[in-house]
């Protein structure tokens, strides 16, 4: 008697997904496949998924969960349960590995410039992949993020502390010459602090391009301390018990690895706190601020801390478009090339 695959799929769907990763993955599969029910023993291809959908899905995982997977991983771990377990295994091995918080996204040429990109709170170091791909191949592209996010390590409590460590990382890669920096969201504020620290040592820093940064609450109390990029996090104040649990997790972040969603939320919360406590100081340096319409235009606030050479450019509609949207990433790459990479000689 032949097997009825529809009956088997229904039986699988009736068994709910287990781990947090399984539940998140089931929702991703269901969304990609038009809302079908997904069970732990289902396979993406048997449910009607295509190779193109797999590539798009893995691209989302790279941005959201900081896991670099290939389509072959889904072939080797075909069911929802097996693939979720594989993702958890990749995350765990990556977290325990003694790896740098700076990764190279594009090698570049020996005579080309190096661009150092600082990721925002909760964002993956792989989130600049689209930007790197849109730059000229002679540009070396490096992505930097805070400690304790993707690998085990005690995170810095302040923007300045993170910037000091990242300047040391930058100088290991480029000992001298002109430094080219950019950053997104709170990472743009870290990039600004890196530029200040480099300039204080007499180093030459090219004009900056900062992608959709928000003025820290300490420097502009009138500016809301929440971000449109995460409206769910800006909801009503949670109960005391939940706030205490969040605080405990923030303190443990970097030492303990949480499930994929909690890890992202907690690293975002930790970064938001350090960002909002940061105090900006006037900085006489040419800067281009590329902002989205999703964020409030903070041009008046930023002018208090920047010089007359600061330029404001609307680049996109949504806060995360420079990282998620290929077209917007290309616009940002063109802006960085014009305003930063081509602005000064980059001969070491």
UniProtKB/TrEMBL annotation:
Q: Domain of life, per the record?
A: Bacteria
Task: Give the keywords, sorted.
Answer: Phosphopantetheine, Phosphoprotein
UniProt-listed Pfam families:
PP-binding, Thioesterase
Signal peptide bounds: none
- GO MF term (any one): phosphopantetheine binding
What the entry lists under InterPro entries is as follows: AB_hydrolase_fold, ACP-like_sf, PKS_PP-bd, PP-bd_ACP, Ppantetheine_attach_site, Thioesterase
Where is the Carrier domain positioned along the sequence?
Answer: 16-91
Protein name (database record): Putative thioesterase
**What organism does this protein naturally occur in?**
Gordonia amarae NBRC 15530
